[in-house]
Write a structure and sequence with these properties.
Three copies of one chain form a homotrimer. Chain A is an alpha/beta fold. Chain A has helices spanning 17-32, 61-69, 87-98, 104-113, 122-128, 144-152; strands at residues 7-12, 36-41, 117-121, 140-142, 156-159. Chain A is built from six helices and five strands, in the order E-H-E-H-H-H-E-H-E-H-E. In chain A, helix 5 links the parallel strand 3 (117-121) and strand 4. The longest helix of chain A has 16 residues, at 17-32. The radius of gyration of chain A is 16 Å and the shape is globular. The two termini of chain A are 25 Å apart. The B-C interface holds B 11, 13, 42-44, 62, 65-66, 69, 123, 126-127, 129, 143-145, 147-148, 151-153, 157-159 and C 1, 5, 8, 18-19, 21-22, 25-26, 29-30, 33, 35, 80-82, 91-92, 94-96, 99, 101, 155-160.
């Protein structure tokens, strides 16, 4: 690998469980093989980084409504297709457990321990009224300029 | 930045308001920081470039049906999630106005004034029976070969 | 084109007809112009590679349920929007026939004859209980390491 080939930057726009699993399989796979990995969480994807049961104090009504409907971290996510009011998602999780395939929350923990750089998009945080304290620890915040800086150095760029 | 790092090429496949906003934030951010930006609008994404209330004369019935159901430019777009028959989209627009975040139509105007190259996909135009006159001014039309020419020169390629 | 510019690698995550058509137009266009093309089919996208009416013997109940609900190859796919219980998809297919635009199954055949490398994702196969015999011939199977190897060498990487 030359220098340029050593980096991968992913934009995580979606909060669908299936897409998030794909993203973190790519991220952990790349980090394991020695690549530097950057993940930018934007729009719906931002909710993957939320802590559970964070207080809603000081939020506007609209922010509370949005907040209550978006997943709080990986556990609240659902399949993008064949969800069937939660039954499809449960079925998929049980299959993954039986076949010993990593679940989303495990993949996220692995990504963090492999030193994946996780960045929360500032514009999305503002749009959805989400503060840094509501998000998991050990992440950075940044905007489009931060993203472009990483992406320009990366051999692999994806929008997920 | 070396030569190769100076270019970004986006395929805009979706006409969801949220994805279009993400695309134009990336495009205007990159163009502002001196990058050459190319955006290829294909399939549903093509409808982001439609003029409002363009005459349907000379169209087949099927083309009219498709035409009447697709958004005419940025104003007709909706959120990909939590739309709730329009209420979620309205709420998001009002939040963006209050927080002084640019709306989609403003981002599109900025992209044009920053000399982003906007290309409408010819195959999609044919498929949906959309003529060049129905699309906004100052854009180009092109096919997959045009796309590949730009993408091969770009440091950042995304499918949105 | 220098060496690096000669390769394109696509992740096909979706099984929506419209996205699959876009992917194969890109793939056949790139292969026709002399590029090496790699396509990785993962998650829902895997069902694009399924043979029709493959026996369900030896499958668990859950695998059969999933199997019966996923498309078997290109013919079972639907539009991601405006499907209207199948009517929109039919309409789009008939438009494409009339305007002599290639259908998805034709594009797939073209991609194969242009020597596109088609890879089925092993993790997805395990998750969905799909065996190699159930998939079309002349494809490879591989995981994230195989993907990263191709993607790092590619000028164009997309997640579709």
């Amino acid at each position: 690998m030359n220098e340029k080939q050593k980096e991968m930057t992913l934009i995580i726009f979606s909060n669908d469980m299936d897409k998030a699993i794909a993203a973190f399989i790519l991220a952990t796979g790349a980090a394991s093989s020695g690549m530097k990995v950057n993940m930018f969480f934007t729009f719906w994807g931002l909710s993957l980084l939320r802590k559970k049961n964070y207080s809603r104090k000081g939020k506007t009504l609209i922010e509370r409504v949005f907040g209550s409907m978006l997943p709080e971290g990986p556990d609240g996510t659902r399949l993008s297709k064949m969800n069937f009011f939660g039954a499809g998602t449960k079925m998929m999780k049980s299959i993954m457990r039986k076949k010993k395939i990593f679940q989303l929350n495990e993949l996220m923990d692995m990504a963090v321990s492999l030193e994946t750089k996780i960045v929360a998009c500032t514009t999305s945080m503002e749009m959805m009224g989400i503060k840094k304290e509501e998000l998991i620890d050990n992440i950075e915040v940044g905007g489009v300029v931060t993203y472009l800086g990483s992406a320009r150095e990366s051999a692999i760029n994806l929008f997920i």
